[in-house]
Backbone:
């Protein structure tokens, strides 16, 4: 196990330890630890990648059509006809966005999506804005998708309605745990339900279309009551606004498209290629399902309602009532809604690790746990989402359309960044390269076309975002508009802290002070004289001849005992007894130490040797005053002293 | 402020500091700090003492009569006639108990009541049983009395029923705060409501009796409906059981009588005399009120009911309807119910401090805060009582009769102890003394009479306790029967811990080991090389020449940086780099240290010098891994190492 090997300089010794994490309950839950060198084996292919990264995007087909219909109801029955053209426009937008992200994936193969693109091409602030929007989005995805999945379950079994919060948290905990086992395992675990959903939806749409062309498909039997059906004839402007509103609602279908760009590093090599193909596959499935559902919804006259989802109406119309296949659709939809959270678990930890390594989030987020995943990020996401679930009592479904605003902000920023990038590429000569930026650039043909396509995409998504902000402002979009700048502020504060720290500790202009040669004053605070305090004294005597023991006298009786015992055991060491008429312990000691610090000569050091009792069982801590602990905490913030703890244990 | 004064041995320096606790919000709330020497000024006289210690006992007059009538209702209307004779018997019992406690107060002027008496005369186990019963009693007194006071308020203002829990906790917090200001202040603050209650009750009873002899007192007009009125004629045995049950219910009037014996030290000198007179005064008032209320309740045909208290029925009968005086009675009763908690706050901290100084409870309980009161005890009592209020949602009134079982256990133990004491006194010759026990004994005349009176008292209270345990077992007396042994067990465990500690640290047979002369190995763990870690290295170089820096390599890139910098700044010090393929930090370091510990020679010391970053703001701690903290926690439990922290701060 130990392999000492002398290195080039005699003062370096290199050892390798195969020290594994201990076998405990954690290991049982998340699996055997992985070596850093195993990294390559933990990457995933296209099949698993689709299961991990598509579930969020695909789950939106479960409600996007309904969201459009819900707004169109404001224009009466005739309005419903617009659902199909609107869906076509949205799929067009999807195509633009996917093309952009395809470029991003190849341009930035180390992941980071909108954040990296913006950082590299637009500067820090847009990058942080994109990151903040995405992080909020990921958190909301988890709480909202799990809550809505649980809502589907409790509407089938109203008896467990009271259990919805613990149930939702159990789901979050389960997904958190699977993700702590690694992205590969989460993909494997959730591949079956994801592919099941895709299969059953294609089956439903396929049969639906067949029956439609057969003329054997009727309309929805016994449709649910629609709550806010418009009656009056709208003005042209109001109608345009309505269409815009319906369109923006439908764009929730695009949420989750950006996830792959953040998680490229999860893919097997050649990872850009693998990630890119997965993105295209995902977009194709998403677009087809969405268009299919919208088309069939119009043809079968499905209605938007809180009581029965459009998917449910479609399924029972296409499959002629609630049989086995209907049940499969419902179960598949519920499952994919919950699994949408899994995509967030793939994106959030990677993005936050990237922010952390740039110093915008706590550094702990870059730490990879025993399964090579960003454990702190995964656990944080699970915890914050659980808090939201508890606070909103798992009834956050109304937040569903909200977080799309954050996604569209990141779309806009990412595409603007790419447009800028192509512009800069175009400024280079074909042979020239640049390494000024974090990522090198070199001339590429067709830069102008790419710039225009990305620029157009940016404009489109920016418009959607604005429409969103206006139409949804009262429904809660303002929450995102507050949260995002707040998060950016926090990122900046954290960055300032790390920068200040790095400057403060830097060795750049560091003049090494001379070694300590002067007096070494040692102070030993003690409240009684026993084997533990004598052990501290024995250690102190090894350090220096200049030792002062200090006793803070609170009870005169105790002090008398200390004085007598010190006479016998103190070996002539000076004992200062400080009366404390107000029965304070820490404060008079600190005043005493401060006095000595003030009188200190340059190049002199002061060490406080604290006898520290360590109980054999942690519960026994409650039986002691923990003065050593309190003293240490106070002394740590006193510059100029070194704290030495001589622990003593009673077996 | 500093007054160094050479003592008999040259190595002692005695200093006095007038270091006062800082001026902060705490000081604003609980008042200016008091010097230990001020102790005598914090004692109370008879007048304030009565207000502090009598409120618990007096508050029981608010419900004792009703408790008796409630049981007698089982025998039909005729049964109510027995309320007066039963009350007379109870007052007889009160007299016996008070005589015993009068003796205890004079025999044990340092307080401690049943606990001290039992410890001194019966042994440890009975002493702990009495203490456990009393501590449980004090806690229940606080939660129950405050809850029942709040219940009276919310029955008058049903609108605030929902606020009963926060309201009750606010009352507990208020009483806690006042008690933290000192017993003198709590007495002063609560004297007016206590004396108001006494005055208004005497007025009510006096007018009642006058009108009764005038024949102008009628019976209760429009009496409340009685819930469980008996109909059938009872067998003689059943009737006897009923009377016994009624009697035991009525003995709740005696709760709180023991409080003074635990709190003698609160009184001004001559404290036994002052405490004794206060006890007699209290017993007289209690007996008179109780007898008076029971007598008038019988004469006015007051009925036991959940809907209207007996006191309320009496007041509106005597004062001819609900006028100002009626209101005064109700307000006074509500106030005294809440103030009963104050007596517990006088007793609990003193009793627990006594147990703590004997090593049966955490030593912190002996600590007197800035106002010379046992702050930890007061805060603990307030906290535990608040938890009970939250758990039982302030509806703990049904626990009222429960805790009397604990009180009677302590009565029985205290009186048995006193009987035993007189017996031992009788065995001495008039000139002989003994100092074997904690308290000295000397011959006293009339010991046999005293022994018989205490013995008789013990038998009486034991019978009441048994009746209580039997008649109230199902109502929850079993809770006390479980809690008391559990608490005794905890006391014993705590005592074992302290005893083991004292033995382990004792200097009795301690052979001082020779001073450290051997090698002083110093290990400096570091994760990067910067000003902070170089400061630790600089300190380490002062300690020893035998320094090893250890770097646990998690990220190869970081390690390369460490190696390069060490080459420049390490001053030739040996650096051991330990590869950690599983990205563990603490574990490989501990393994390395363990290896060195195993190879250690006798008389060699090993010091771990840990560079410890101290953020200027506590919130910044969240931005760091806290590895220094984790390492220290692990090392503290590793015998044989000394931990030195070299703190570094960034201003």
Residues:
């Amino acid at each position: 196990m130990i392999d000492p090997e002398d290195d080039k300089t005699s003062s370096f010794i290199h050892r390798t330890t195969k020290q594994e994490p201990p076998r405990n309950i954690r290991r049982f839950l998340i699996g055997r630890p992985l070596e850093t060198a195993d990294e390559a084996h933990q990457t995933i292919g296209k099949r698993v990648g689709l299961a991990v990264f598509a579930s969020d995007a695909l789950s939106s087909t479960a409600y996007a059509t309904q969201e459009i219909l819900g707004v169109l109801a404001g224009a009466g029955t005739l309005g419903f006809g617009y659902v199909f053209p609107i869906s076509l426009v949205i799929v067009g937008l999807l195509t633009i966005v996917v093309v952009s992200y395809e470029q991003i994936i190849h341009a930035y193969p180390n992941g980071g999506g909108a954040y990296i693109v913006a950082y590299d091409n637009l500067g820090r602030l847009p990058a942080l804005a994109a990151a903040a929007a995405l992080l909020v989005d990921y958190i909301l995805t988890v709480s909202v998708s799990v809550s809505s999945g649980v809502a589907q379950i409790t509407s089938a079994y109203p008896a467990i309605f009271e259990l919805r919060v613990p149930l939702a948290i159990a789901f979050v905990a389960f997904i958190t745990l699977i993700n702590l086992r690694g992205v590969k395992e989460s993909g494997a675990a959730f591949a079956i339900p994801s592919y099941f959903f895709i299969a059953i939806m294609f089956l439903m749409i396929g049969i639906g279309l067949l029956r439609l062309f057969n003329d054997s498909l009727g309309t929805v039997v016994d449709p649910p009551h629609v709550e806010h059906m418009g009656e009056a004839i709208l003005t042209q402007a109001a109608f345009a606004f309505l269409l815009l509103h319906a369109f923006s609602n439908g764009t929730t279908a695009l949420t989750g498209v950006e996830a792959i760009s953040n998680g490229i590093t999860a893919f097997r090599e050649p990872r850009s290629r693998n990630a890119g193909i997965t993105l295209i596959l995902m977009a194709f499935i998403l677009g087809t399902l969405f268009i299919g559902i919208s088309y069939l919804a119009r043809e079968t006259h499905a209605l938007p309602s809180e009581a029965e989802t459009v998917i449910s109406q479609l399924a029972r119309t296409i499959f002629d009532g609630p049989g086995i296949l209907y049940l499969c659709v419902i179960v598949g939809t519920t499952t994919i809604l919950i699994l949408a959270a899994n995509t967030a678990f793939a994106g959030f930890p990677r993005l936050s690790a990237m922010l952390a390594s740039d110093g915008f989030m706590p550094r702990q987020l870059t730490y990879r746990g025993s399964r090579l995943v960003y454990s702190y990020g995964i656990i944080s996401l699970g915890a914050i989402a659980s808090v939201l679930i508890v606070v909103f009592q798992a009834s956050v479904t109304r937040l569903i359309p909200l977080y799309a605003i954050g996604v569209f902000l990141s779309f806009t920023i990412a595409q603007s960044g790419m447009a800028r990038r192509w512009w800069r590429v175009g400024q280079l000569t074909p042979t020239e390269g640049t390494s000024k930026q974090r990522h090198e650039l070199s001339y590429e043909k067709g830069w102008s076309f790419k710039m225009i396509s990305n620029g157009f995409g940016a404009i489109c998504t920016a418009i959607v975002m604005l429409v969103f902000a206006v139409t949804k402002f009262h429904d809660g979009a303002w929450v995102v508009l507050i949260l995002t700048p707040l998060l950016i502020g926090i990122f900046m504060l954290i960055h300032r802290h790390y920068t200040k720290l790095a400057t403060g500790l830097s060795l750049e202009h560091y003049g090494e002070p001379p070694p300590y040669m002067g007096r070494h004053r040692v102070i030993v605070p003690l409240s009684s004289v026993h084997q533990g305090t004598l052990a501290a004294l024995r250690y102190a005597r090894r350090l220096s001849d200049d030792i002062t023991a200090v006793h803070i006298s609170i009870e005169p009786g105790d002090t008398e005992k200390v004085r007598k015992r010190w006479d016998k055991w103190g070996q002539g060491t000076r004992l200062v007894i400080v009366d404390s008429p107000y029965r304070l312990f820490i404060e008079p000691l600190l005043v005493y130490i401060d006095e000595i610090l003030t009188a200190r000569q340059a190049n002199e050091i002061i060490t406080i040797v604290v006898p520290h009792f360590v109980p054999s069982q942690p519960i026994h801590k409650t039986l002691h005053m923990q003065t050593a602990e309190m003293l240490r905490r106070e002394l740590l913030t006193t510059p100029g002293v070194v704290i030495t703890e001589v622990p003593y244990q009673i077996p």
